[in-house]
Amino acid sequence: MSDAAIFVVVFGGLFVLRIIAATIFFYYILPRGDRCPYCDTATIRVQPAGWDRLVPFLRSSWCHACGWEGLLRPGALTLEPAETKLPEPV
Q1: pTM above 0.70?
Q2: 36-61 in b/e burial notation, b at 16+ Cβ within 10 A?
Q3: Which of 19, 57, 72, 78: CA 20 to 30 A from 5?
């Protein structure tokens, strides 16, 4: 095997390993559960725009309190009672 082929195989392999390591690292950085990473409020699951086919093990979420939207890892869901605001008497 020539020196050029060995060079391409070694550095190509290192490039692929770097991509795999970064993917695993960023997967574990994502928060687990349904809490917003900014304001710690329960998020709402949204209809994914193609993400469900590409990465089915993540969930697309949106925070109604601060407007954050992104991907979260599966985990425990928050069961918060619905807040009902009654109109003030006039």
Answers
A1: no
A2: beeeebbbeeeebeeeeeeeeebbbb
A3: 19
